[in-house]
Amino acid sequence: MKNILFMIFLGVLYGQELTVPGYECGDCHGTGGWDELELSNFSHVNTNFQLEGTHDIANCSDCHKGSTIREKHSFGDVSTSCNSCHLDIHKNYLGGQCSQCHTSKSWIVEQRIFNHEETRFSLMGAHRFVNCSDCHDDLTRFDVTPSDCYSCHRSNYDKAENPSHFLARISTDCQECHDVQGSPWGASSFNHDVQTLWPLTGAHNGAECAGCHQGIFLGTPDDCWYCHQQDYEA
To answer: Tens of pLDDT along 44-65?
Structure first.
């Protein structure tokens, strides 16, 4: 019985023996055993796919998959396209080459190489320093992302208190008052002389918005008494 089992074992072992044309077993394997390779003596420089970034620390079996010995050693049949190994979370809306936006060093979006200037929304000012996911909630598609200010900055608009943008019915186009090149929401680029019927002259030119606008902008009275009643009565 033992002899029969031994012969069956030899049959299985030799049945899976495989040679790869142009290579000896020792080119990849060492004398430590035939277990799944984590490190190999083989130099990938000799192939048409150089191991750069995180590819350089990947196990052979991460890319060369198979359930049999022969399948695991079919190296020439392995596709070099990114989505043959990597799940495409964009569902092919952005094409199959991850290298258009990512590098082999990491998937972290800060290392993206995508040129946003080629889109209908150039990244200026503070927009240049945000992560993709800050504006693109759905990472499947990017072309359907709204480009108006309010779509991304609604929470900033609603929280504004000095003055309340909602109560004052201020435009939801942030660029009418704010400059993307300036500090976040700190300075206003609103031109009171051009965009209203009340040019700011004299001391009015240095006044704070809230000094005249008590939570309302449209319909603010322009007579002196409205703002200077306390000065008159003093």
So the answer is: 887 888 888 888 888 888 888 8
